Amino acid sequence: MYGKGLRALSIATVATISLGFSLVFFYAPLDADQGFIQKIFYLHVPLAITALVGFIVGGVFAIAHLRSGDSRWDAYSYVSIHMSVIFGVAVLVTGSIWAKASWGHWWVWDEPTLVSFLIVFLLYATYYPFRYAIEDRDRQARYASVFAVTAGAFVPLNFLAVRLAESLVHPRVFATAEGGLPGSMRLTFLVCLAAIALLWVTLVKFELTAKSASGQVKRLRRALDAPAASGQSRIAPEVS
Amino acid sequence: MTPSRTAFAAILAKDLRAELRTLQSLPAMALFAVTTFVIFRFGLDRTALFGSLAAGVLWATLLFAAILGINRLFVAEREEGGFDAIRLAPIDRTALFAAKAAALLIYLLVLEAIIVPVFAVFFLDSAAALPPLAGVLLLADLGLAATGTLISSMAVHSRARDLLVPLVLLPLVVPLTIAAASATDPLLAIGGPGYDRFGTWLAVLGLYDLVFLLVGYAVFDFLLED
Questions:
Q1: pTM
Q2: CB-closest option in A129, A151, A157 to B164
Q3: Could you tell me the residue range of the domain that residue A103 belongs to?
Q4: Which string of DSSP letters, residue by residue, matches A26-80?
Q5: ipTM of the predicted structure?
């Protein structure tokens, strides 16, 4: 039932990503300062925004789970956080490449945006061992939701604290309101943001579909009284 | 007194009495902290510390010592069936959160009353920074008590209790550490305490305390359901 609309969504995602990357390479002008390397910006920033929004969305799903007790929300929350952690790895890698090219170092410590993101990433990386360590399924779901809510509240607070230890190395493109970004670059950026956000939604939907299918297989197997297939995840929640 | 306030007082008194009789957490925390100072003394090869280095040593040691206590905070409840008793009792469950956070806050304050003077004797030239430092410590302890109680109550039900508390808690208290260490840094500067952006950092600490006390208050109910 999660598979509904998946094909259309996948096609839309591929189309938007293709459009976005064509714009990046053939339409957006070269940056006067940074040259070609600036183009990784169209991948790095949308990934970062999507990952952070995904963490918050995971927290919102977790609130829904705690309020309703419906384990489906827990699965949504888990998959959102899971996907955002994966996107987070990509953010750190693309960010490092950009940092090396434009600042000369793979990692810059006095740069609040990088450090904030690393801390948020480290916190969410503990979501897996945390979930894995609790055996009872109901309790696991409930505690994981409490974790997701707490971590969701942590994200803005962390950015505030790190930002106050201030530095202005990281380009703040939209900070200068109008005129920070030429129109052609802004259009390209927005298309890329939409593409990456769509990619996130599609991957989340794929994972939910896969989980729901494997849950169904497991239930059928149980009905047939056959031994369960080995190698299935003990961390991930079941989806009905 | 309202029922939940009675429950709060009873649980807090029980915790403090148990700690006084068994002395399970506090002496170990204090001993650990003092030993860590000695480790830093040789690891850094310094006999006196100033500024950011002093702040870093103090806050890293405090956090790690606090984790020892946070690990043990709910162990008695788990092993002796205290959780079941709380669940059966006709009281507001947040009383348990408040009482445990208050107990942890008291442990941390007592711990600091012991180890901060030791720190000053070991590494500092003068004690002039200690009165303003007490304010920073108090605000940081409040936040640490809120997050520590929350994480401890979750971790105690898992298989890997001792592993999870530091793993989850440390990233969670990074903003607290940033604010506390940044406020402490100028206080311990060479040539007497300075107050560079002291108010800003205290405000950040206060905000952190407020957010996590509210989060703890909001979600603690769900941790006790069964």
A1: 0.82
A2: A129
A3: 6-28+43-172+189-219
A4: IISPPBTTTBGGGGGHHHHHHHHHHHHHHHHHHHHHHHHHHHH--HHHHHHHHHH
A5: 0.80
